[in-house]
Amino acid sequence: MLFYGKTFKNVLLFGGSALALAALVGCSAPEPEKPKPKYQPTALEEGAKGITIATSKPYNCRIEGETDVEEEVGDTSGATRSSVRGGALNKLKNEASYVVKDGQKIMIAITKEESRCKFAIYSNEKDRKNGKATKYEEGPCPEDDYLPNGVSLVSYKIYGDVYECGTR
Fold it and tell me: Could you identify which of 24, 39, 96, 132 might form a hypothetical disulfide with 79, taking C-beta atoms 3.0 to 4.6 angstroms apart as the criterion?
């Protein structure tokens, strides 16, 4: 009878421990990932609405200075190269508007544009298929508009010269 009592006691201890462990494992399951907020490009400010973007140096204008801006995507979703470029152009005009005197006509000649992407690095083919990257590296984005799986847009940078072109 003594043997039966010890065995029953061990079963209760082991069973109770297993139940407690199962409860803890169930409680520690990862929470589902929250959806990321939608990307919102920088808005064009009122004072920047009259500024023109030029693809080359404007004639009969005086250079006021150089500027560069970077529009970052951050931890958002839905950003396209076109929308981020649009946000960067708005940011460029907004920045140039701070040097504008009332009644001046301002043009910005873009001298350089570049987009940066984040590339997922996978340790093997199985991880690539499951989307489990081992690390990420940043670099210039591919030239075409299509970004393959594992590549995401990080930022868009524009450099430009600011010109004063008389009065409006």
Answer: 39
Please name the residue that has the structure tokens 């544009």. 113
> Which DSSP category does 99 fall into?
T
Tokens read off for 126: 């199985």
**Bridge-based pairing state of the strands 62-72 and 104-121:** unpaired
- Tens digit of each residue's pLDDT, the chain (168 residues): 444 455 445 444 444 554 454 445 555 556 677 888 999 999 999 989 889 999 888 889 999 889 999 999 998 888 889 999 999 999 999 999 887 777 788 999 999 999 999 988 888 888 777 778 788 889 998 887 777 788 889 999 999 999 998 887
Q: Is 73 exposed, middle or buried (0-12, 13-18, 19+ CB in 10 A)?
A: buried
Here the tokens at position 77 are: 């979703």
Continuous segment of H or E residues that includes residue 86: helix 81-97
